[in-house]
Write a structure and sequence with these properties.
Rossmann fold; homodimer; alpha/beta
Chain lengths: 294, 294
């Protein structure tokens, strides 16, 4: 594998215009969530089968890059990657973990699924529990939900006073600036599904006995606040998409597209790091001799 | 998938006599490590290609069982599985993690790689850091090295007084009895390679620039104490292989066999649990109506 980190994934795949996708998904100036079509597939000209093929093809590449990234960390490279996954219920966060993150060696991944905070967690600031789960050097940290819940459900359900919620955007930006300054590449993803697609996915959970366990009546309570959530997302996305911690809104009505897009964002982050296998920090011939003698 | 948990993996595979393998690998009365051939493949009549095919075939089954196991935990099932991996350097612990554990949804796995203890860890009893990493309900916990290091390298390098090491076997047995009593199925695996096979694997690390990072001159220091390690393993295996926390010595000169064997031990543990998809704890028709209205 070349060590120059040139990002050539999808280079020969006319269907996958990765750079175009990345730019289209990124939340920038004047972003409007309501203008994003959850059924669109920015940058990808193919169909489901093509997308799945591309995903499978690049899985090994992602795993290889991660190994090189990890190897560097054993030799002093302190860099790390943090992937933050947000999205409404059924938007496919679990599927991304399983099918994109799952293709990486488990030894290189630190996954945290954040649930409703415990009493102990609530006794601290909302960033406390997140800070404790930041990934180590050479690792890809994955947050399935995150500190953003505190400005999403926190805002919609008024779990904190309005001025406190307001203040949290600034706290988040400060926090993420620190984390990024600490050699972390932060990638924040909102998986964006339509309300109709969510209905279909919830219906499946109610139709299939092997899916009942995934259903919670509370999901429908949240669903009834759909517009409030979109508004909370719009606020969070625009106020916290920064140079050092950008948001990407990934249309997610097509699961295969969402997975491909997130895989690409990880590939892009690692490819841009100029990774290389670390040189031996011992004398090779000496060690070969020792090995032969042992 | 049937919910009765009948263990039918490999049922139609004449090459893989799983039960026979399990019995052959298990450390029982009168166990003698020096009598185990690291190049053997107990219970498996096929070759590498057959073994790899069997591994790939059962990967999905393991993943499916784990999902059902996890589902149960969301509905009050408190059971958990702990896989302890030990073995000399290059014995293939990392490969088992990557190829066996890596086939399971990352959301169902809690992996801990134990390194040399930190100062903070050393200020506690040797079981302290392990206790903090026991898996939650519905999870498969994996220890890549474990508290056994404290009676392996601890014994060989005399990191603690002899009577303290002696005492640790009892402490381990007490600890594991507690953990098992706490609804944990404990599976302890020693990956057993020959000294010759280790030489080949270390040589590869010295020959290939993409493997240098895996080599540590200290590995050869440990290698020079080979017989002392075997003796420390023999003591640990015989003194701590119990009904509630049995040891399995898996011949590991053939990586494909070691992976297949460990996969089987996990499959066997989950298959024996009488897993079933949990029933809905809500009224399905009511929720369907709510969904339709929302």
């Amino acid at each position: 594998m070349a060590g120059n980190g040139g990002h050539n994934v999808g280079k020969h795949d006319a269907k996958w215009k990765a750079k175009e996708a990345r730019q289209a998904l990124r939340v920038g100036e004047g972003f409007d969530l309501s203008a994003v079509d959850p059924a669109s597939t920015p940058g990808f000209g193919g169909k489901k089968e093509d997308g799945e093929r591309a995903l499978a093809r690049d899985a090994q590449h992602l795993s290889d890059l991660q190994e090189m990234f990890f190897a560097g960390s054993r030799h002093g490279d302190t860099r790390t990657v943090l992937l933050v996954l947000q999205g409404m219920d059924t938007s496919g966060k679990g599927g991304v973990v399983r099918h994109v993150v799952g293709a990486i060696d488990p030894q290189g991944v630190e996954l945290t699924a954040f649930k409703a905070p415990t009493k102990a967690e609530l006794s601290h600031g909302f960033l406390w529990r997140v800070r404790g789960r930041l990934p180590g050097a050479g690792m890809i940290g994955v947050f399935d939900r995150s500190h953003y819940e505190d400005v999403l459900i926190g805002r919609v359900q008024q779990l904190a006073p309005a001025d406190e919620i307001e203040h949290r955007y600034d706290l988040i930006n400060d926090f993420e600036r620190d984390v990024a300054g600490d050699d972390t590449t932060i990638i924040k993803v909102m998986l964006h599904i339509s309300k109709e697609e969510q209905r279909e996915r919830l219906r499946k959970r109610l139709d299939r006995p092997d899916k009942y366990w995934k259903f919670d009546p509370g999901d429908i309570d949240q669903r009834m606040r759909w517009d409030d959530y979109l508004e909370a997302y719009q606020a969070a996305l625009t106020r916290t998409s920064t140079e050092h911690a950008p948001w990407f809104v990934v249309p997610a009505d097509h699961k295969w597209y969402a997975r491909l897009a997130v895989q690409h964002l990880l590939l892009h982050a690692l490819s841009g790091m100029d990774l290389a296998w670390p040189p031996a920090d011992f004398d090779i011939e000496t060690q070969k001799q020792r090995l032969a003698d042992s």
